[in-house]
């Protein structure tokens, strides 16, 4: 019987991502990538204005 | 269009449609038809997610948006990567573990049947109308610029993807999307290369970017916090986050794409790769629009990009005024061209600081051209008060038709058709899945009659396709089409997201409380739309916040909590 209220990760160990080793690292890369784009956009805007 | 263009367009469409029918012919079980047998690898999931989101509107309207308004539209996507992380971490494992066919099934397990049905209904309403728009938008632009009959274009565009989606369901959709994505990538890259190549010889790419910057088109970041300003970093990060959470986490046209993943890891990776790629992709398309603006500093552009509206004025008694405006526009274009060349040369020759005078001269010339275009739009409206004076959707395709070589025009039209087919077929497959799983199976039939359910799915795909085409026929004037789709989504997404976030995180809240909260929140969002000047991205925050807040308040009322608790079904999956 499944319990939808049960939080993710409460069952068998997670399958790792195909690269970067762990999900935590993958999430950090995605968030860091966003931050990088914001900084780049800002610099791009300043440089060409 | 030349014969070569027709061959490229016809060949591409015939191949994709034929491939979809061939690959989808073995979809005989409901799992196979609705979720492609849950066998997709992460790269197929990524492509499917991106292809479903990027409709033809994306490729027609977004460059026009960059042309007219600069690159600030990209901020709308800044919340998306964060949403991908949240959905990958929380929603994907739950959906996979419960082996659900639609996310609304989860709501019945968590709350009750009426909450599931309400949410499924909101999805069907919103997505059914939006699917009509995704067919209508490119059909309108193609019919106006190529002189094709609008109804016939809608019929051909809708008919092609209905053919293979009815035949093969999600399997056919997933198998054709990589080909469609390849056509889109190839076509847009070719357009970009030709655009840069056709800039004047003495204008470098850096000079072109400097020009775009000076003319206010390179503005991807706006730090100002303003609730009435549609695109700034705050509306993008906060409103865009809520919009993306709702679209990717609860809209079955997207959930279905990653439920086809063979495991939690494949689905998660597919989503996260979308989080890495979407922002630069939108940036690239908007940059194309900004460079298009630079291109039209040196090459003549029509006074107004929509030839149908232009023809109405030319055929009216105000023809002389229009011709006068066209002459004025031509003269001002020549002046602006000289100013642009002077600035480009000054910028290329030395530091940007030395270009102050040239910059001011160009800005003045550009304002004069803008005033002529505004006068033209006013004249169009005076001749026909119902006319659409927004021509941004026609900018990119006008460039394609006038400046791209034979063969590439056919390829770009193939891009428009491919993008429309990939997003619409994904949406149709999702509409069909929700109709069958949350409607037919829940209310009429029972689970297990696979063959019958697949047949019902095929019929419902056909019916939704017909509905979308019918709506497309009557879609009317909606301003910038890409915005119209997002505004429509934002009216419902916040409420749906609020229901799901309550389900994931607020264990105390039961069915009746969240159901009443959702109804009240939807009324609040509609009131917000009708009565306030608040920009549409914030509706997602308002709807979601209201559901959560009201659900918590209602849960603390003993009467409602008790009823909700008794209505809540035991979980068995």
Description:
The complex is a heterodimer of chains A (49) and B (573). Chain A has 49 residues and is mostly helical. Helices cover 53% and strands 0% of the residues of chain A. Chain A is built from one helix and no strands. Chain A has one helix spanning 23-48. Chain A is rod-shaped. The N and C termini of chain A lie far apart (61 Å). Chain B is mainly α. Chain B is built from 22 helices and no strands. In chain B, helix 3 crosses helix 8 (150-197), helix 19 packs antiparallel against helix 20 and helix 19 packs parallel to helix 21 (537-555). Chain B is globular. Chain B starts with a helix and ends in a 6-residue tail after the last helix. The chains are: A mainly alpha (49), B mainly alpha (573). The interface between A and B is large, with 30 and 44 residues.
Q: What does the largest sheet of chain B look like?
A: none
Oligomer: heterodimer
Number of helices of chain A: 1
Strand residue content of chain A: under 5%
The overall pLDDT average of chain B reads 85
Terminus-to-terminus distance of chain B? 56 Å
Q: N-to-C SSE series of chain A? A: H
Strand content of chain B: under 5%
Task: Give a brief rundown of this model.
The complex is a heterodimer of chains A (49) and B (573). Chain A has 49 residues and is mainly α. Chain A has one helix spanning 23-48.
Structural key phrases:
A: mainly alpha; 1 helix; B: mainly alpha; disordered C terminus
Strand and helix layout:
The complex is a heterodimer of chains A (49) and B (573).
Chain A lengths: L22 H26 L1
Chain B lengths: L2 H22 L5 H6 L6 H12 L2 H14 L10 H19 L4 H8 L2 H34 L3 H48 L7 H10 L18 H18 L1 H8 L4 H35 L8 H8 L4 H31 L6 H28 L11 H9 L4 H37 L5 H24 L7 H25 L5 H21 L5 H19 L2 H10 L6
Helix pairs in contact in B: 1-8, 1-17, 3-8, 3-11, 3-12, 3-17, 4-12, 4-17, 5-10, 5-12, 6-7, 7-8, 7-17, 7-18, 7-19, 7-20, 8-12, 8-17, 8-18, 9-12, 9-14, 10-11, 10-19, 10-21, 11-17, 14-15, 17-18, 19-20, 19-21, 20-21
């Amino acid at each position: 019987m499944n319990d939808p209220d049960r939080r993710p990760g409460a069952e068998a160990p997670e399958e790792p991502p195909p690269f970067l080793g762990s999900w935590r690292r993958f999430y950090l890369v995605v968030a860091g990538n966003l931050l990088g784009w914001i900084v780049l956009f800002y610099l791009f805007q300043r440089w060409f204005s | 269009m030349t014969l070569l263009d027709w061959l490229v367009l016809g060949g591409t469409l015939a191949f994709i449609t034929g491939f979809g029918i061939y690959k989808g012919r073995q979809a005989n079980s409901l799992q196979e038809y609705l979720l492609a047998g849950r066998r997709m690898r992460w790269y197929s999931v990524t492509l499917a997610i991106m292809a479903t989101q990027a409709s033809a509107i994306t490729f027609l309207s977004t460059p026009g948006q960059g042309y007219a308004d600069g690159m600030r539209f990209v901020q709308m996507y800044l919340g998306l990567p964060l949403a991908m992380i949240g959905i990958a971490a929380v929603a994907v494992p739950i959906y996979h573990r419960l082996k659900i066919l639609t996310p609304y099934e989860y709501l019945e397990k968590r709350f009750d049947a009426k909450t599931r049905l309400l949410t499924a209904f909101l999805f069907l309403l919103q997505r059914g109308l939006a699917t009509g728009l995704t067919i209508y938008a490119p059909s309108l632009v193609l019919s106006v610029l190529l002189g094709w009959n609008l109804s016939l274009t809608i019929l051909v565009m809708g008919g092609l993807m209905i053919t293979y989606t009815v035949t093969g369901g999600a399997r056919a959709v997933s198998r054709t999307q990589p080909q469609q994505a390849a056509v889109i990538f190839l076509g847009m890259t070719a357009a970009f290369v030709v655009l840069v190549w056709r800039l004047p010889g003495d204008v470098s790419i850096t000079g072109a970017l400097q020009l775009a910057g000076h003319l206010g088109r390179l503005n991807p970041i706006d730090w100002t916090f303003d609730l009435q300003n549609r695109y700034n970093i705050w509306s993008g990060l906060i409103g865009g986050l809520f919009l993306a959470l709702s679209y990717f986490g609860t809209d079955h046209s997207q959930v279905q794409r990653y439920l086809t993943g063979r495991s939690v890891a494949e689905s998660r990776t597919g989503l996260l790769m979308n989080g890495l790629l979407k922002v630069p992709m939108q940036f690239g398309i908007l940059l194309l629009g900004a460079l298009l603006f630079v291109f039209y500093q040196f090459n003549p552009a029509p006074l107004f990009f929509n030839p149908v509206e232009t023809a109405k004025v030319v055929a009216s008694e105000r023809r002389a005024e229009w011709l006068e405006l066209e002459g004025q526009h031509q003269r001002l274009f020549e002046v602006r061209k000289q100013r642009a060349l002077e600035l480009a040369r000054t910028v290329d020759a030395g530091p940007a600081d030395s270009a102050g005078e040239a910059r001011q001269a160009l800005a003045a010339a550009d304002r004069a051209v803008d005033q002529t275009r505004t006068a033209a739009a006013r004249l169009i409206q005076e001749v026909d008060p119902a006319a659409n004076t927004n021509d941004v959707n026609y900018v990119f395709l006008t460039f394609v038709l006038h400046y791209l070589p034979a063969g590439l025009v056919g390829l770009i039209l193939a891009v428009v058709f491919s993008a429309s087919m990939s997003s619409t077929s994904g949406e149709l497959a999702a509409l069909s899945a929700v109709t069958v799983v949350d409607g037919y199976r829940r209310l009429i039939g029972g689970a297990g009659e696979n063959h019958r359910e697949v047949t019902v799915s095929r019929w419902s795909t056909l019916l939704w396709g017909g509905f979308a085409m019918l709506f497309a026929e009557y879609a009317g004037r909606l301003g910038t089409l890409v915005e119209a789709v997002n505004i429509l989504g934002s009216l419902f997404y916040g409420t749906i997201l609020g229901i799901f976030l309550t389900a994931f995180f607020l264990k105390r809240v039961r069915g009746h409380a969240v159901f009443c909260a959702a109804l009240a929140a939807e009324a609040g969002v509609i009131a917000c739309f009708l009565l306030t000047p608040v920009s549409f991205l914030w509706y997602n925050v308002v709807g979601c916040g209201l559901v959560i807040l009201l659900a918590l308040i209602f849960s603390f009322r003993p009467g409602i909590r008790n009823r909700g608790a008794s209505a809540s079904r035991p979980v068995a999956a």
